[in-house]
Write a structure and sequence with these properties.
elongated, two-stranded antiparallel ribbon, single chain, 11 helices, Rossmann fold, Helicase, Ruva Protein, domain 3, seven-stranded mixed β-sheet, alpha/beta, 2 domains
């Protein structure tokens, strides 16, 4: 029987979910089935793993902490379908793990300090079927924020331009050891099928989003006129408004993800 160190590593952002009831609720929200392939990111001491093992065809555990990975490998060495990788998930392509990424379900309690890089790594094509992850409450609010609110920004547009997102569970800080300074939420991210954007369109959208939210308090037309990488003329601004039907005197934070997509496509057509 393996044994896990009782100490969390602050350098790896470790906070272990110890509330058994919440562990079960998260796994039930994922709804593992006998034909499922599941990737668990940062399984730690196996809080979710123990509820997943034996309930799916394949369970892949990717754990950065070598000691925890060894302990998990020891504990589940006799469990069919369980594979443990001691790696950084940011270096693992999903197509390395399965022959059909579009059928893969992803679950994890990921470190707060690298939530955004991990999320965008998972949303890089090819995309999985579903991502169920625990994130800092503030990050969840930013992803789910409505246009026109202070929380709405590049993260909202970046995720929701390629996926549907919903809040699944609220998780209080008291459910972890050590206890973090903030509460968490579990969100479900379902990549859109078919892919809504081509790779070139995704690149254009990322460029426009970054540009816009670096100066979010300015009018969109001002940003598009004055930024050296765009530098549209007044006539081009009017043409862009004619193509899209948008009032570019509005600030970027008032535009929905769908409107950002429309605007980025129109900009490509002008160039």
């Amino acid at each position: 029987m393996s044994s896990f160190s009782p100490y969390a590593k602050r350098s790896l952002g470790q906070n272990f979910l110890v509330d058994g009831n919440l562990q079960r609720k998260i796994v039930e929200a994922l709804a593992p089935g006998p034909s499922d392939e599941i990737l668990e990111i940062g399984p730690g001491r196996g809080a979710l793993t123990r509820h997943l093992a034996g309930r799916c065809r394949s369970l892949i555990l990717v754990e950065l902490d070598d000691a925890l990975a060894r302990a998990l490998a020891d504990e589940y060495q006799g469990t069919p379908g369980v594979r443990v990788l001691s790696r950084d998930i940011l270096t693992v392509g999903l197509d390395e793990l399965t022959a059909d990424v579009s059928r893969l379900k992803v679950v994890g309690n990921i470190p707060y300090n690298i939530t955004t890089p991990i999320l965008f790594h998972l949303l890089a094509p090819p995309r999985p079927k579903e991502i169920l992850i625990m994130v800092q409450k503030e990050v969840g609010e930013r992803i789910l924020a409505a246009p026109g609110t202070s929380a709405f920004g590049a993260l909202s547009v970046g995720v929701r331009s390629v996926a549907l997102v919903e809040r699944v569970l609220r998780v209080p800080a008291s459910a972890f050891r050590p206890v973090p300074a903030v509460d968490s939420v579990v969100i479900r991210v379902r990549p859109l099928r078919p892919e809504p954007l081509t790779p070139a369109e995704e690149g254009s959208l990322r460029f426009l989003t970054r540009l816009a939210f670096q100066q979010r308090r300015k009018q969109f037309q001002t940003i598009l006129r004055t930024h050296p990488e765009v530098a549209l003329s007044h006539d081009q601004i009017r043409e862009l408004e004619g193509i899209t039907g948008f009032d570019l005197r509005q600030r970027p934070e008032t535009f929905s993800p769908e409107e950002f997509i429309c605007l980025s496509r129109a900009l490509r057509a002008l160039s």
